[in-house]
Amino acid sequence: GRKGGHKGRARQYTSPEEIDAQLQAEKQKAREEEEQEEGGEGATGDPKKEKKSLDSDESDEDDEDYQQKRKGVEGLIDIENPNRVIQTTKKVTQLDLDGPKELSRREREEIEKQKAKERYMKMHLAGKTEQAKADLARLAIIRKQREEAARKKEEERKAKDEAAMAGKRLQSLSLSK
After folding, report:
1. Cα(83)–Cα(70) distance, rounded to whole angstroms?
2. Angle subtended at Cα 93 by Cα 35 and Cα 83, rounded to the nearest 5 degrees
3. On the CB side of 139, how many CA atoms lie within 13 Å of its CA?
4. Where is the composition biased (Acidic residues) (predicted)?
């Protein structure tokens, strides 16, 4: 039998909770080092700061510094590219929801298309479009044809009734004699 290679071995994955705990521990350690450098007080500082360090949802300046650590050679080379856009994260309180929202090209075109369709339907219902005029003319012709057909049918029915009445009169006359 062959021996299995290293690829068949059981893999060990780190759970998301463990990763979060490690990140919090690293942030806590970095904050403590900063506090020691600034005032040398250590962890016996303001209770609000301790509360922030325990809360992972709260972001402050330390989190931004942590995210801006450079990887690899980036730390050694200063890049001055005027075209490079540095992504900044905004807090929920900084977002401007009331301001005018810029629409994408597709959204703008979709809105214009809907407005044009609405205008066309209004014109069509008013009978001002070519198609509406053609439809109205066709409807007028159909109405005339139906009226004529109804008139002819009525005349045929009357003629039939008169013929039937005349036949009954002849029968009644022949029977009475």
Report:
1. 19
2. 80
3. 7
4. 56-65
Q: Taking a C-beta distance cutoff of 8 angstroms, is the pair 56, 24 a contact?
A: yes
How far is the C-alpha of 151 from the C-alpha of 139, rounded, in Å?
18
Q: Which residue has the tokens 């109205």?
A: 136
Residue with tokens 């990140």, as numbered in its chain: 23
Q: Is 127 left (phi over 0), alpha (psi -120 to 50) or beta?
A: left
Backbone angles phi, psi at 117, to 5 degrees: -65, -40
Q: What residue spans define the domains of the chain? A: 105-176
Q: What is the pLDDT along the chain (177 residues), one digit of tens a residue?
A: 566 666 666 667 788 999 999 999 999 999 999 998 887 544 454 544 444 444 444 444 555 555 566 667 766 777 777 787 777 887 777 776 766 678 889 999 999 999 999 999 999 888 888 988 999 999 999 999 999 999 999 999 999 999 998 888 877 777 776
Question: Which candidate, 66, 62, 69, 21, places its Cα nearest to that of 38?
Answer: 62
User: How many whole angstroms separate alpha carbon 156 and alpha carbon 34?
Assistant: 108
